[in-house]
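Progress note, sequence design subtask.
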C-alpha cells in the first residue's frame, strides 16, 4: 500500500517575506512577519508542475529581494513575476535550486510578492523544503536584514492507477443485401485502441440486436481469442442473421467491456446497415454452378455441369508429403435472379492442412461452417482459393477427397459440387 508524501516549504524573510504555496503558515522574528502560501497544494510524484509562491509581509519595512530555495525538486525553469507587476524581475539562481525575485519599489507591510516557477516533484518518500530569504538591500540580494521565516507542506502523492482501454466494435455481414428468409453470416469484432495501457486482446460477450425486420440466430456471442488478427483484436464466431421483411435495417453489436487478466476494456458499440431484398416469386430459375481448376492451369472444369456428385467436374492429382496445392474455385449464378449462394467445403484432416481465401482474406472458418454466403447477381460469379498442404505423417496409399458445394439461398434444393482429390503416394 502506498502513502502520500509531504513536501515541506520554508520561508526566511527580511522585512516581511513572500512565498507562494497553498497551505499557509506565518512566523515572526522580532517585528517582522512572513506568510507563505504554495499553489498547487497537492502534486503527483515525478510530475512537472507550475508552482506559485507568494509571501505577504507584515510588521513594516520594505522588501526588495527574495531568494527562494527548493531542495529535492529538480528541473527548475521558466521563472515569472506575478507581483509586483512593475519594476521587479524573476530569475533562476544564484544556485541551481534557487529562484530570485528582486526589484524596486520595496514591498511594504500587508503587500505581497509572488513568483511562478516550473519544477519537477520528487519520486518516492522525499520531503522537499522551500526556503525564502528576504532582503532590504537592492544590490545583489547580499545583505540580510530583519529576518523572518515561515514554512508549510505540500502533499506529494502517487499517480492514479490507469483507467481501462477504450475499444472499437465493428459488425460486418457477408452480403449487406440479404434475401428475406435467407441467412446472412455476420461477424462482430472488438479492437483495443491501445490507450491508456498497452493493447491486449478483448474478452467477454457481444450482444447482437436489430432495428426490426429480422433476427439473429443467437442474441449474443462470446469473443474467441483464437480469431485474433493481431494482439489487440478478437472476434466472435460468425452468427447468422435472417431478415423477415424487406427494406433497410440496422444491426447493432454491443460490447459491454471486460475486467481481468489480459487488460481491462471499456465497452463500445458497432452497427451495420443492410437492405433486405424481397424473395423472388415462386418458379424462378435458381442455378448455382461451381467450377474448379489448378492454379497453374488456365482451363476451368465444370462449366455448365451441375450435379451433387462432382462427376465430370473434379480434379485428381498425385501428391506426396511436403507438397502444397493451390486450387481455384468459382461459384457462378446461372439463374435468372440475384441469389445468395452459400459456398461450403470441408476443412483440415490429419496431417493435411486446408485453408480457403477470398482475395487476401482468410475465410476458412466461414467456408467450413457453411456460413460463407455471397450475394451474386444473375450471370455473376465469385472466386475463392483453396490451399492444401501435406504434412509429415500423412498416410500414403490412399485418396483424400475435398468436395466444395455451392447452394442456392432461394431454392435450397439447387446445388452443385466440385471435388479436389489427392492420390497420396510414398516418396
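Output:
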Amino acid at each position: 500500500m502506498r502513502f502520500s508524501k509531504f513536501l515541506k516549504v520554508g520561508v526566511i524573510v527580511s522585512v516581511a517575506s513572500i512565498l507562494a504555496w497553498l497551505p499557509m503558515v506565518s512566523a515572526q522574528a522580532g517585528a517582522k512577519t512572513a506568510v507563505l502560501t504554495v499553489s498547487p497544494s497537492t502534486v503527483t510524484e515525478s510530475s512537472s508542475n507550475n508552482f506559485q509562491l507568494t509571501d505577504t509581509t507584515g510588521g513594516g519595512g520594505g522588501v526588495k529581494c527574495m531568494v527562494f530555495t527548493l531542495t529535492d525538486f529538480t528541473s527548475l525553469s521558466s521563472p515569472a513575476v506575478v507581483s509586483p507587476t512593475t519594476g521587479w524581475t524573476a530569475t533562476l539562481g544564484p544556485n541551481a535550486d534557487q529562484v530570485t525575485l528582486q526589484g524596486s519599489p520595496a514591498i511594504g507591510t500587508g503587500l505581497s510578492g509572488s513568483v511562478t516557477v516550473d519544477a519537477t516533484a520528487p519520486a518516492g518518500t522525499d520531503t522537499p523544503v522551500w526556503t525564502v530569504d528576504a532582503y532590504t538591500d537592492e544590490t545583489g540580494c547580499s545583505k540580510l536584514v530583519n529576518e523572518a521565516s515561515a514554512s508549510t507542506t505540500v502533499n506529494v502523492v502517487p499517480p492514479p492507477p490507469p483507467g481501462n482501454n477504450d475499444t472499437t466494435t465493428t459488425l460486418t455481414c457477408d452480403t449487406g443485401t440479404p434475401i428475406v428468409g435467407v441467412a446472412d453470416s455476420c461477424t462482430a469484432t472488438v479492437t483495443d485502441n491501445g490507450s491508456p495501457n498497452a493493447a491486449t486482446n478483448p474478452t467477454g460477450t457481444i450482444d447482437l440486436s436489430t432495428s426490426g425486420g429480422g433476427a439473429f440466430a443467437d442474441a449474443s456471442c462470446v469473443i474467441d481469442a483464437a480469431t485474433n488478427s493481431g494482439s489487440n483484436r478478437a472476434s466472435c464466431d460468425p452468427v447468422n442473421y435472417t431478415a423477415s421483411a424487406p427494406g433497410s435495417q440496422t444491426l447493432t453489436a454491443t460490447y459491454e467491456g471486460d475486467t481481468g487478466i489480459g487488460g481491462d476494456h471499456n465497452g463500445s458499440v458497432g452497427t451495420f446497415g443492410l437492405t433486405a431484398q424481397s424473395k423472388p416469386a415462386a418458379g424462378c430459375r435458381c442455378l448455382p454452378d461451381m467450377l474448379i481448376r489448378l492454379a497453374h492451369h488456365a482451363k476451368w472444369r465444370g462449366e455448365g455441369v451441375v450435379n451433387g456428385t462432382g462427376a465430370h467436374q473434379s480434379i485428381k492429382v498425385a501428391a506426396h508429403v511436403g507438397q502444397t496445392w493451390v486450387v481455384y474455385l468459382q461459384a457462378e449464378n446461372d439463374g435468372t435472379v440475384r441469389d445468395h449462394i452459400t459456398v461450403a467445403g470441408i476443412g483440415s484432416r490429419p496431417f493435411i492442412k486446408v485453408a480457403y481465401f477470398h482475395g487476401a482474406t482468410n475465410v476458412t472458418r466461414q467456408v467450413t461452417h457453411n456460413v460463407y454466403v455471397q450475394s451474386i447477381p444473375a450471370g455473376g460469379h465469385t472466386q475463392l482459393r483453396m490451399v492444401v498442404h501435406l504434412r509429415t505423417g500423412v498416410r500414403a496409399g490412399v485418396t483424400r477427397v475435398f468436395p466444395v458445394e455451392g447452394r442456392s439461398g432461394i431454392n435450397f434444393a439447387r446445388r452443385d459440387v466440385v471435388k479436389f482429390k489427392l492420390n497420396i503416394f510414398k516418396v
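The radius of gyration is 39 Å. Work on this subtask will continue into the next period as scheduled.
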